[in-house]
Amino acid sequence: MRRSRGKVRPRSGTGAPLLGEHTDKLLAEAGLSTADIAALHDTGVVA
Predict the structure, then answer these.
(1) For the chain, percent helix, then strand, then coil, each to nearest 5?
(2) Which residues in the chain land under pLDDT 50?
(3) Integer Cα distance of 40 and 21 in angstroms
């Protein structure tokens, strides 16, 4: 396996998602309604 001898620079503006950043989208894709997702937020189940 060949490796580059140059320095690797991380891409700016990328990184791990923030806590809860994609929660609503994932819950909606899992079939939860907007009202169900709001209820989870209201009760503190999700961030």
Answers:
(1) 35, 0, 65
(2) none
(3) 15
